[in-house]
């Protein structure tokens, strides 16, 4: 069963759903910096349904954060520019809606969690005040109702003594507690779409486990769609239903999580998996991917990974590989795929 | 037999002072009675969460910040009591690599200048042969000769860390303290740097004190592991033993909390609740007791001493009762992944041969 638009396995399973909840089509984002054009995101497409978690993985500079910022339309313009593509939330193109409507969506239907809560929370307002503001702006709650709801939300995210914490300023909390406040803020108006950009990267492992548990519980309870941007394959394996692997601004592989880990196809994905030191395995010498990610200002014809890829042919160096579906829901952008043909 | 590096009773307290008289208003016990040995060619990992004091241990043992108490000896020579001149030549033998090489390299010096400085300072090179020695260092650390004339900002994160390693290596040290050397790097680059550190250790017999929060990386590089909680070592053991059978509930929770890159294993939910308590006001008894699932009355009252157990050491009253294992038998690389890697490896060898 191969379809032209490559829906995720979730959409296929549901079948009846004609319009995916979130659909990103051929997104192109550029940055104009001192006379150069840096193409941060090039032709990125994926879909995400309610109740599912999509992981977007890649190394720094691969465009994963720009992709997530684009969905909220938070890429600063200039220097950024949406050069092409569409971002459809239930069929409506977020790149076209008026700014006022977008403002209502952010923090309303779309909740956001960023990596460093210290820089995304306002240091001069108490945690409670920031949640109350969001509630009164988006849901129009009265002061008293907003106050109660804020405490309720802080309790929901597992902050000890939420009533007192609501009167604390962000600097009075620990990193894990701040991230909980950030999550409470993101959830304040019952979003259908939660975008989390490296939500646990700045946290210690024991705290990370708590936050991931919390996000899992909340997804189950609210049925929201979650987009999780991360560099950590461990986090992806444990929390995501589907994965998009990005490299230098492009999607190189897209698959259900189980399928990706059982059958990685792109040489970059394979290299990435073998490069991760594992806590449950002693795997001798770590595999490495020689070379480094090409700088964003560099114009590349052909596959962006070709310069580091041992399987690269002349075609790879001259023609850009499209994302092709090898099995239902599992797409890969590689001229040499499926890798089984190279192996035999 | 004495070890190459011996750390005994190393303690570092920071005092919070208040008022005009600068009276001591509080004490942060950042490191308390730290003991360990590092032998030639060995890696001792110091593991813990942020704020546990692991970086303080590294800096104090190098004398970068004065110790409150304790001794450090390198090849039998006391380090912390040396006068300034002697300390300077001792620094030749003890180096450090930081997490963020961008912050630790001088942005106004080219790589050649950065590397030449310690060589000339310690009489390891003469002005005549210094550029050749710099070229050798670059080569050892996987950098190209033309990198010598470049400035730190012209490098990627991984290359910059290679420069940081070359700088530490310049003085042919006996011990290098690696303070989170790969935490800021991407996975594929992290693997390159870990392999480089391992190669250098094999080649020169350097002892590493490897400070990290990442238990997967530590399992990969360490000979022995010391787990630190709130300024104290709570468990120390050979790497394989520690991961197979953690003896301290904190170690167990760290191991269990690390997300595993394999969707077929069911991750258990968060093994401990709560945050690291404030070091200014540590809990009574065992510092871990407020978060410990096994805590009993005794833990609240009596601080457990580090005691020997099964070839390692542990500071827990109930260490014997931990039945749950860690990861005994390391699982091999899945055959599927291994076959694919082999294909890539062969192709790489072929294209290199052409």
UniProtKB/TrEMBL annotation, chain A:
Origin species: Pelagivirga sediminicola
GO biological processes: peptide transport; transmembrane transport
Membrane topology: Peripheral membrane protein
UniProt cross-references to CDD domains, sorted A to Z: ABC_NikE_OppD_transporters
Domain ABC transporter span(s) in chain numbering: 22-273
Record localization: Cell inner membrane
NCBIfam families: oligo_HPY (TIGR01727)
Keyword Transmembrane helix: no
Main location: membrane
PROSITE patterns per UniProt: ABC_TRANSPORTER_1, ABC_TRANSPORTER_2
Keyword match Iron-sulfur: no
Keyword vocabulary terms for this entry: ATP-binding, Cell membrane, Membrane, Nucleotide-binding, Transport
Single GO MF annotation: ATP hydrolysis activity
Top-level taxon of the source organism: Bacteria
Residue ranges crossing the lipid bilayer per the database entry: none
Designated name of the protein: Dipeptide ABC transporter ATP-binding protein DppD
Family membership: Belongs to the ABC transporter superfamily.
GO cellular component: plasma membrane
TrEMBL record, chain B:
PROSITE patterns linked to this entry: ABC_TRANSPORTER_1, ABC_TRANSPORTER_2
GO cellular component: plasma membrane
Name this protein carries in UniProt: Peptide ABC transporter substrate-binding protein
Subcellular location: Cell inner membrane
Gene Ontology MF: a single term: ATP binding
Membrane topology: Peripheral membrane protein
Chain ranges passing through the membrane: none
InterPro entries the record matches: AAA+_ATPase, ABC_transp_ATP-bind, ABC_transporter-like_ATP-bd, ABC_transporter-like_CS, Oligopep_ABC_C, P-loop_NTPase
Domain ABC transporter: residue ranges: 5-255
Upper lineage: Bacteria, Pseudomonadati, Pseudomonadota, Alphaproteobacteria, Rhodobacterales
Family to which the UniProt record says this protein belongs: Belongs to the ABC transporter superfamily.
UniProt keyword terms in alphabetical order: ATP-binding, Nucleotide-binding, Transport
Pfam families: ABC_tran, oligo_HPY
One BP annotation, GO: transmembrane transport
Major subcellular site: membrane
UniProt KW Transport keyword: yes
Organism: Pelagivirga sediminicola
């Amino acid at each position: 069963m191969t379809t032209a638009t490559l829906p995720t396995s979730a959409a296929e399973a549901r079948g009846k759903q004609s319009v995916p909840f979130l659909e990103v089509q051929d997104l192109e984002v550029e940055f104009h910096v001192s006379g150069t054009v840096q193409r941060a995101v090039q032709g990125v497409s994926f879909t995400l349904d309610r109740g599912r978690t999509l992981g977007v993985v890649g190394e720094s500079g691969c465009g994963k954060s720009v992709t997530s910022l684009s969905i909220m339309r938070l890429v600063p313009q200039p220097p950024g520019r949406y050069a092409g593509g569409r971002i459809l939330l239930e069929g409506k193109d977020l790149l076209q809606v008026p700014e006022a409507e977008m403002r209502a969506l952010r923090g309303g239907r779309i909740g956001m969690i960023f990596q460093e809560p210290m820089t995304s929370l306002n240091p001069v307002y108490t945690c409670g005040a920031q949640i109350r503001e969001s509630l009164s702006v988006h849901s129009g709650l009265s002061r008293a109702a907003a106050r109660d709801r804020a405490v309720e939300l802080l309790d929901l995210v597992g902050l000890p003594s939420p009533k007192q914490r609501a009167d604390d300023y962000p600097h009075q909390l620990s990193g894990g507690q701040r991230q909980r406040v950030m999550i409470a803020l993101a959830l304040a108006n019952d979003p259908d779409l939660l975008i989390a950009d490296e939500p646990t990267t700045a946290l210690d492992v024991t705290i990370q486990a708590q936050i991931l548990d919390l996000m899992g519980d909340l997804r189950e309870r609210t049925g929201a769609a979650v987009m999780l941007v991360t560099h950590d394959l461990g986090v992806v394996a444990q929390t995501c239903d589907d994965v998009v692997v990005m490299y230098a601004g492009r999607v190189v592989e897209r698959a259900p999580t189980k399928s990706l880990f059982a059958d990685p196809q792109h040489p970059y994905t394979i290299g990435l998996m073998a490069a991760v030191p594992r806590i449950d395995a002693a795997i001798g010498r770590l595999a490495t991917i020689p070379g480094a990610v090409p700088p964003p200002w560099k114009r590349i014809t052909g596959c962006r990974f070709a310069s580091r890829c041992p399987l690269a042919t002349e075609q790879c160096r001259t023609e850009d590989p499209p994302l092709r579906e090898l099995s239902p829901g599992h797409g890969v952008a590689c001229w040499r795929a499926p890798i089984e043909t190279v192996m035999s | 037999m004495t070890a190459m590096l011996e750390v005994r009773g190393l303690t570092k307290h920071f005092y919070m002072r208040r008022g005009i008289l600068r009276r001591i208003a509080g004490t942060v016990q950042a490191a308390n009675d730290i003991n360990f040995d590092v032998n030639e060619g060995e890696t001792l990992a110091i593991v813990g969460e942020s704020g546990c004091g692991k970086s303080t241990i590294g800096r104090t043992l190098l004398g970068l910040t004065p110790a409150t108490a304790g001794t450090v000896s390198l090849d039998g020579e006391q380090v912390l009591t040396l006068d300034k001149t002697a300390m300077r030549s001792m620094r030749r033998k003890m180096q450090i690599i930081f997490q963020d090489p961008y912050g630790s390299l001088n942005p106004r010096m080219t790589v050649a200048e950065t590397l030449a400085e310690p060589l000339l300072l310690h009489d390891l090179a003469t002005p005549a042969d210094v550029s050749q020695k710099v070229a050798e260092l670059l080569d050892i650390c996987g950098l190209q000769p033309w990198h010598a004339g470049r400035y730190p900002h012209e490098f990627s994160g991984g290359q910059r860390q290679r420069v940081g390693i070359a700088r530490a290596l310049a003085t042919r040290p006996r011990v290098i303290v690696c303070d989170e050397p790969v935490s800021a790097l991407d996975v594929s680059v992290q693997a390159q740097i870990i392999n480089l550190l391992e190669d250098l250790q094999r080649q020169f017999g350097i002892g590493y004190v490897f400070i990290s929060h990442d238990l997967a990386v530590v399992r990969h590089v360490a000979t022995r592991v010391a787990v630190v909680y709130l300024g104290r070592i709570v468990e120390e053991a050979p790497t394989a033993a520690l991961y197979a059978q953690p003896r301290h509930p904190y170690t167990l929770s760290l191991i269990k909390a690390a997300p595993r890159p394999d969707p077929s294993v069911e991750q258990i939910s968060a093994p401990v609740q709560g945050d690291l308590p404030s070091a200014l006001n540590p809990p009574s008894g065992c510092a871990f007791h407020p978060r410990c699932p096994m805590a009993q009355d005794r833990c609240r009252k009596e601080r457990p001493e580090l005691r020997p157990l099964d070839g390692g050491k542990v500071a827990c009253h109930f260490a014997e009762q931990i039945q749950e294992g860690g990861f005994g038998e390391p699982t091999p690389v899945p055959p599927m992944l291994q076959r694919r890697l082999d294909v890539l490896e062969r192709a790489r060898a072929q294209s290199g041969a052409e």
